[in-house]
Design a protein that fits this description.
The protein is mainly beta and about 170 residues long. The protein has four helices and twelve strands; from the N terminus they run E-E-H-E-E-E-H-E-H-E-E-E-E-E-E-H.
Amino acid sequence: MAVVGTIARAHGNRGQVIVNPETDFPDQRFQAGAEVFVERAGGVQPLRVVAMRMHKDRPVIAFDGVATMDDAEALAGTELRVPVDRLAALPEATFYHHDLVGCRVETRGGAQVGMVSRVDGATGGSRLIVQGQRGEVQIPLVAHICTAIDVAGKRIVIDPPEGLLDLNP
């Protein structure tokens, strides 16, 4: 399953929650009737969205069966997930973050940099967090640095500017 958001906190006293979206399509992903999944009580449980509105670029969501502030507060910090097959198709040369995690990163010259452990940021400002032999390296996810991305082969080739790999190990 892919993470599409994280519940930040309760909002109001009627069981609504504020979500930090991890999707470029929050208005579609969290529309009324949509189903997301959470891990609770040792298992995966579905939650159905009954209402959603945007507030300061974040969705405020009401879920079926979450009626009180206490119910909503119990969900704080919970990741909202959907099955990967329910994700929208992306335009060419764009990728879901989860597709990049686990890719090996190497330079155009073949030097091994490490493995992508996560991707931080949103569209236009994402960066690969790469675990290498010298520690963590942050690499901007931009076309002139990440020159080849092969999701199926789990490989990313980079052409780092001078000093990038030494900035933040």
